[in-house]
């Protein structure tokens, strides 16, 4: 019989909270090992979109202010890949909750925060991989970033956006309680994506639509990332476009704060 | 000292009391079955004891610790096996157990060693890296139980552990539970199956509408409802009703409202064992009703349970 005394916390609960979060995230990494195909398919979907828009639709696209549509599209696709991550997060959360795994975690002497924190770590890691795959694909079709340092900053902004959509996903996952609800989000994410400057410059849209697209929480990131990569930005646009860097940081932070608070409240509400 | 104790436990959802003042005590090392129909409050009671849900009133203690005051300490002493196997489908059995052991804060080595012990204990040692997805229902359930045993808990909660399992899987789970009890674990299980309570439990507590409507050993419950039943199979189903009436008049307790039974099978409560079979056979013979089979048997917990919950509903309809 193994000694079953739990080890004494070395630096208190915080240390265990971190260790538990990594243990929970490790479960997802073990999934990758077992189902590499599933990971690959997930990562290849944005690549497919990139190829479709570049080669099937790109011929009919003109970027206001000039520039190649492919170079205009790549940063947009990178940002959208972060947005699409909301589905994966929501699916994982709602499935675990519906199947009693969340409750099992909650009945263990682990840090309760690790249930959600582990999800965040795992999804951020998988999004980083997805981002890498998409960037390699973009490089393969001839897109080139302007420099390494600004490119890294761009990746940082993209992952920050992912954090925001991660928390949205956690919140929606806790809200849904039924895996079939994910479909609704999968559908709604499309108008959200198209109502941004990711595929088409906001200035090319009719008046009020262009304002909506400019203020879309993704738009700041898209524009800022275009600038950092040295890709065409598209001319025109109002205050929001001129202050893209501010919005690229501000929007994700606001979304994260709001949805993290909602998600934590919802998580605690599980014991009501 | 009791391993589990509830006093006046209350839980409301949207103004409706799911638990309406439940008292329960489970002795150390014993098995208690919470029995009741859907919506009786069984699962809610277990979820409160397992620190998943807070109560709205009353007190609950597990292993002498108040679940509301120190849930963390309670979690170190319990295992919870919920209504559906809460294990990762993609991973193998061992990977699952190592993960749960790590989350119990065992070190890497200890977690692996414990996982191997548990796999052997529930008879899954041979499954290797095979994903849980490919397991049978019974295997999955055993893995689920193993996951609840990482720290050799003092108290194990099983919420409808055999719902949806085939008979072989059910027997599997029963054997696992019996082995645990032999090792001194206290078990509180909820079930809708009387047979399960009869097979496993030292004590049965019948919940209905959030209240305890009966409690005792399975034997006490059946005894309280009363005596024995005469079960007979008539050759001609058309005469079943007649046979039932006759048997009741001769051997039955009064008053019996409607004799239970379907088709040619008739079940009659018997007031006194002695002489009942002979008297009924004689009466049927005189009436010319042919009988294929006739058994005098004790009342089952099933019948007692129906009587108990049915009677309680009838009583609660009388305005106080």
UniProtKB/TrEMBL annotation, chain A:
Record keywords, A-Z: Antibiotic resistance, Cell membrane, Membrane, Transmembrane, Transmembrane helix, Transport
Gene Ontology CC: one annotated term: ATP-binding cassette (ABC) transporter complex
Pfam families: ABC2_membrane
Keyword match Transport: yes
BP terms from Gene Ontology: response to antibiotic
Main localization (coarse): membrane
Transmembrane feature ranges: 37-57, 77-95, 116-143, 149-175, 187-209, 244-264
Gene Ontology terms, MF aspect: ABC-type transporter activity
Compartment list: Cell membrane; Membrane
InterPro entries for the chain: ABC2_TM, ABC2_TM_bact-type, ABC_2_transport, Nod_factor_ABC_transporter
Source organism superkingdom: Bacteria
Residue ranges annotated for the ABC transmembrane type-2 domain, each copy included: 37-270
Membrane topology reported for the UniProt record: Multi-pass membrane protein
Family designation: Belongs to the ABC-2 integral membrane protein family.
Official protein name in the record: Transport permease protein
UniProtKB/TrEMBL annotation, chain B:
Keywords, sorted A to Z: Antibiotic resistance, ATP-binding, Cell membrane, Membrane, Nucleotide-binding, Translocase, Transport
Membrane found in the keyword field: yes
Topology term for the membrane: Peripheral membrane protein
Ranges where the ABC transporter domain occurs: 4-234
SMART domains: AAA (SM00382)
An example molecular function term from Gene Ontology annotations: ATP binding
Subcellular location: Cell membrane
Protein name: ABC-2 type transport system ATP-binding protein
Organism this protein belongs to: Blastococcus xanthinilyticus
